[in-house]
## 1
Amino acid sequence: MKVMERHFFIALKLPADLKKALHHMCQEIKEDNSFKTWVHPEDYHITLTFLGKASQDQLKQLPSLLEEVVQNEKTFELYMNHFGFFGNKERPRIFWAGVEEQVKLYNLQNQIALACEKAGFSLEKRSYSPHITLARKLLDSSTYPVDSEKWWNDYGRDSHFLAEQVVLYETHFEKQPKYHIVQSFSLQR
């Protein structure tokens, strides 16, 4: 039996009421649009930094570095207000919900990335694009190219929520939900 490699990432944990609202929106969207994979509602999150594989030494160093960052950060409001797609507009790879740009989120992400680099992780260099992945690989749609603004008008609902917890997740590819909390760090109130 092949052993799956362990992959890790750091994210903002979403509140249960937002996960429930997103799941309800996805149920409506499913009626008109097919994706190969829909994200399990418990797996909704906003990635701060993708780590990939991690050594035991990196995993040992990381919690204290993350705690150091988080203890200096206060909770903050985020506003989900649009949908988007990554990939070709004819057949998007990723369907996501987006949050309004928030300086506090970008600052937190930058500080988390610096802490991860101190722990010895090599991070992606592409620019940060905060989002909540909802589905992967559009299979069909009644209209091409897809129009994220129309989808938001048809299915979306603006939502405010409080960013309160930074979480180190481990991915279990063979399970549903597939993201397991390794450790949580609470932002200051």
Note: The beta strands are 7-13, 34-38, 45-52, 76-86, 94-99, 131-140, 159-163, 165-171, 179-186.
## 2
Amino acid sequence: MKDRALAWIVTLLETRNIPLSVCGGLAANFYGSDRPLNDIDLFVPQARFAEVVSAGAGFVSKPAQHYCEKAEGWDLEYVQLIYKGTKIEVGNACNARIFDRSVSRWRPLVIDFDSTVTGEYLGSRLSVMPRADLIEYKSRLGRAVDLQDISSLRAGV
């Protein structure tokens, strides 16, 4: 099912020429982690965020707004969509922050759309956060799923 949801969101963005950067578990899977996916996480530029929200309006399960979820490590504006039972979280890259568990403080999350790695995964052409950035991002979040992904990412280096 995740491949259908991924194809849907990628097509929605591609047809509008909206840049994206896949992060989270999907990015880890792209680089070789075999942990089952919980959802699809990606970022788009601030200038295009409202367009994504509008285009996905029929699938919104959490409205586009600012969320600060310390337990998950997120402080950002995002919208949650559900397509064919799969949760898709699209974040606004502007002013996004993650909670760095190692020092117990919020840190900026800089998404560089020009440095993404592109490739095929689950039948879709993806732009993914670079491996080193993903490892750093997941190291800061430090949740059990992140540590599992980091182990797989480092083993595949």
Note: Helices lie at 2-14, 24-30, 46-55, 131-141, 144-155.
